Amino acid sequence: QVQLEESGGGLVQAGGSLRLSCAASGRTLNVFNVISMAWFRQAPGKEREFVACINWNGADTSYADSVKGRFTIARDHAKGTMTLQMNSLKPDDTGVYYCAKSREYGRTCYRAIGDFDIWGQGTQVTVAS
Predict the structure, then answer these.
(1) For labeling, which of 4, 45, 64, 115 is most exposed (least CB within 10 Å)?
(2) Spatial separation of the C-alpha atoms in residues 62 and 32, rounded to whole Å
(3) Helix and strand tally (H, E) in the chain?
């Protein structure tokens, strides 16, 4: 089974940038190359929400309206990693960021929480005003 681990979170001033990474590992690591991946986030007292997704080959991506134009999702099959470049950060971007693996093969990009079956532990992003 694939395991996911996020890294790269931290404290940043508004307007700053962070780059999150999600590393896949496990005995079925080849699965990583055929599934869709996504980033979600959860702010204190709020529900987990979709941030960005990417299909198996990176040709299809999608973003939440709140991050469109500021965040960029990418993946590297050779390294078994997915990244989220976050620029022009705002205090509203604060939360725990999770990466997730889709249940189905990833010809398309998925956005619903129920479409994902494996999640990382999350990495905290705090944007100070």
Answers:
(1) 45
(2) 18
(3) 0, 11
